[in-house]
């Protein structure tokens, strides 16, 4: 059997600390099981992680435990750097072959790894998986927070622990943390159980369709897409088409439009609303595959759905279906510091939000019904977005 401890050193700060924490965990586990093979190594990319798993599989000593120490996004461990970030998408995780023993399990010593990733990993690989719900920090002791002094040597014990702090609970929690008055939160363990509710958009398709029947409520986003569409009546593919309202709006200025969505319920809504439009059609998809012929699409549009996609395989598909000079139009959300030239737009947005708050209309009422529905909360819990650095990149 093998216990493997992987860590990163390049993505954001704390690389040297992650190396120390991995070595500390290796010494601790080796002392408990002197005869067991316990490996600790840095893996700085998805390719290096895959190679490490392949070496273990080739050794014939399957994984009794997999540990990962580092940073994580909602889709799990982050690799490389914040300027060139990497993480496995859900589709990529599902295609991996990890050499777990029948009694194997996994531990992800990363910020917020219990919120989505650990349960997903347990379901995907059929092994128990543990993670942290809160943000993590370094501690000189594993059972309670003890500040790691800056003069600590490279072999001084160090652990990654989770507990309330300034990021999650404000300045007061930070004071209590450094005073040593807050307990360390234990890792949460998840069994490989399938989710019982429907985790797709299907349960909220009707409410979503009702709220976004007129895509003009997404005014700035729609205006940007319309401004960037070629005037040569292009053949358009929309990924994450939802109820088809965007394609229906631009239908008069395009040669043809195909809207695809992973939610069969949303596709049914799109067909019911716009199936009569002669140059539009809609299709449900399962996985990062596009139902298009090679070189058959001039423009691919993704409005507020790119964050959910399996980027590497879907980009390969987009390249396949693009005609020469094909154009990809992506609208999505990332956080960013405002620039001076953004001031007029920010002010206009603030005024519009205030107007809607004081005089809510039909859209606000319908949107409120959508986001308050239990099916919406379930969908969000099982369909997180990408890490922000990936979206920025």
Structure description:
The structure is a single chain. Helices cover 37% and strands 21% of the residues. The mean pLDDT is 92. Helix 6 packs across helix 9 (264-274). The protein is α/β, with parallel strands linked by helices. Strand 6 and strand 7 (85-86) form a beta hairpin. The protein has helices spanning 15-32, 46-59, 90-95, 117-125, 166-178, 205-211, 219-228, 245-250, 264-274, 311-321, 343-358, 362-372, 374-382, 388-392, and strands at residues 2-7, 37-42, 63-69, 72-73, 76-77, 79-80, 85-86, 100-109, 129-131, 136-139, 159-162, 188-190, 235-239, 256-261, 280-284, 297-303, 322-331. The chain has a six-stranded mixed beta sheet, with helices on both faces.
Quickly list its features.
alpha/beta; 393 residues; 14 helices; five-stranded parallel sheet
What is the structure about, briefly put?
The protein is an alpha/beta fold and 393 residues long.
Q: What is the overall pLDDT average?
A: 92
Enumerate how many helices there are, as a single number.
Answer: 14
Instruction: Detail the poorly predicted runs.
Output: none
Share in helix: 25-40%
- The N- to C-terminal Cα distance equals 39 Å
Assign an overall shape: globular
The largest β sheet comes out as: 6 strands, mixed
DSSP summary, beta strand count: 17
The proportion of residues in beta strands is 15-25%
Compute the CA-based radius of gyration: 24 Å
> Which strand order do you get reading across the main beta sheet?
2-1-3-8-9-12
Structural class comes to alpha/beta
């Amino acid at each position: 059997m093998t216990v493997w401890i992987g860590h990163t050193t390049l993505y954001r700060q704390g690389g040297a600390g992650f190396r120390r924490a991995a070595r500390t965990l290796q010494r601790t586990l080796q002392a408990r099981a002197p005869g067991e093979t316990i490996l600790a190594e840095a893996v700085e990319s998805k390719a290096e992680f895959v190679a490490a798993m392949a070496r273990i599989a080739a050794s014939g000593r399957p994984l009794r435990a997999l540990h990962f120490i580092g940073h994580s996004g909602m889709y799990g461990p982050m690799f490389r750097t914040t300027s060139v970030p990497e993480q496995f998408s859900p589709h990529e995780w599902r295609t991996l072959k990890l050499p777990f023993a029948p009694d194997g399990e996994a531990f992800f010593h990363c910020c917020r790894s219990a919120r989505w990733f650990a349960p997903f990993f347990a379901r995907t690989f059929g092994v128990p998986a543990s993670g942290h719900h809160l943000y993590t920090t370094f501690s000189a002791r594993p059972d309670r927070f003890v500040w790691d002094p800056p003069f600590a040597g490279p072999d001084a014990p160090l652990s990654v622990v989770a507990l309330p702090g300034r990021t999650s609970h404000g300045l007061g929690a930070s004071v209590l943390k450094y005073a040593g008055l807050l307990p360390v939160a234990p890792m949460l363990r998840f069994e490989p159980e399938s989710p019982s509710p429907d985790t797709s958009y299907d349960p909220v398709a009707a409410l979503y369709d009702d709220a976004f029947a007129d895509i003009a409520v997404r005014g700035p986003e729609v205006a940007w897409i319309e401004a960037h569409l070629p005037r040569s009546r292009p053949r358009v593919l929309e990924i994450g088409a939802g109820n088809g309202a965007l394609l229906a709006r631009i239908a008069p200025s395009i040669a043809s439009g195909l809207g695809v969505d992973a939610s069969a319920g949303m596709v049914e809504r799109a067909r019911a609303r716009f199936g009569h439009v002669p140059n539009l059609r809609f299709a449900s998809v399962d996985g990062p595959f596009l139902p298009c012929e090679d070189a058959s699409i001039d423009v691919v549009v993704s409005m507020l759905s790119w964050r959910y996609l399996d980027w590497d395989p879907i980009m390969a598909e987009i390249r396949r279906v693009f005609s020469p000079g094909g154009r990809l139009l992506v609208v999505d959300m990332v956080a960013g510091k405002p620039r001076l030239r953004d001031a007029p737009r920010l002010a206009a947005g603030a005024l519009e939000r205030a107007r809607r708050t004081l005089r809510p209309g039909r859209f606000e009422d319908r949107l409120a019904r959508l986001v308050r529905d239990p099916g919406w909360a379930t969908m969000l819990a099982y369909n997180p977005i990408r890490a922000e650095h990936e979206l920025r990149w």
